[in-house]
Every structure is written in structure tokens, then in C-alpha cells.
Amino acid sequence: MSEPADNQDATNRWMTGYLEAWSSNDPDQVAALFTEDAEYFTDPFGEPWRGRAGIVAGWLEAADEPGSFSFEWSPLAVTPDVSIIQGVTRYTEGPTYSNLWVIRLTPDGGAREFIERWMDQDKPSGSS
């Protein structure tokens, strides 16, 4: 059974906005992605950035230089409650990462929770 189009559309819109914000580091674009009380986990087991202001501050502190990366993505699952995204980030002068993102969107399309997991493709688990 396929997911309702509006959930897939909301995920596509959110991902487009995320990539634009990632490419610009514009604080307003970053803030627009998240609800006022959102949580952004850069590590699934660490403390999240909390609230729009906290997310913008954390984002800008860890910002990638515009033009320093490319990102390809595809949805693994989109439900009314959660979108799971698989991606690959390639840095022009650095590593390539496999990404798994869990995004919980509200009905208005803002993320209330974002969790990212990533792995350096040159350093797989169990390698020395």
C-alpha cells in the first residue's frame, strides 16, 4: 500500500528546504525547518540541540562551507508520523558519509524531531 501523497510531498518539501539551508547556512532558512520546540540530534545518543534558537546556533557552529559537499537522498519510509531518509554526503575535500535520518514532521510541515546517524564510508565498523 502506498503512503498518502501529502506525506511524501511534505517530506520532499522539507528535504528541499533542508538542502537549501545546508547550502546557505542562512539562519532564517534553518529556523523555518523546525517547530519552536524541536529537537535536533546530531548523535542519536547525545544531547540534542533544542528549540529553533538552539538548533540555529548549533547548526551555525558546525556549519559546512557552501559548495563543499554534495548530497543525494532517497526515502526509505514515509508514514504519517515519520520519514526515514537514506543519503550520501560527499565532501569535495574530505570523506564520504552514509546517512540515515529520522524526521518527525508536524501537519504543517515543520520538523519536531530530527535524528541523524552517519558513517564514514572509508572507516566501516569493525575495521582497524
Structure description:
With 128 residues, the chain is α+β, with helices and mostly antiparallel strands. The chain has a single domain, classed as Nuclear Transport Factor 2, Chain: A (Roll). 29% of the residues lie in helices and 38% in strands. It has three helices and six strands, in the order ααββαββββ. It has helices at residues 5-24, 27-32, 51-61, and strands at 34-41, 49-50, 69-78, 83-91, 96-105, 111-120. It has a six-stranded mixed sheet. Strand 5 and strand 6 form a beta hairpin. It starts with a helix and ends in an 8-residue tail after the last strand. The model is unreliable at 1-5 (pLDDT under 50).
Strand and helix layout:
Blueprint: H1 5-24, H2 27-32, E1 34-41, E2 49-50, H3 51-61, E3 69-78, E4 83-91, E5 96-105, E6 111-120
Parallel strand pairs: 1-6
Antiparallel strand pairs: 1-2, 3-4, 4-5, 5-6
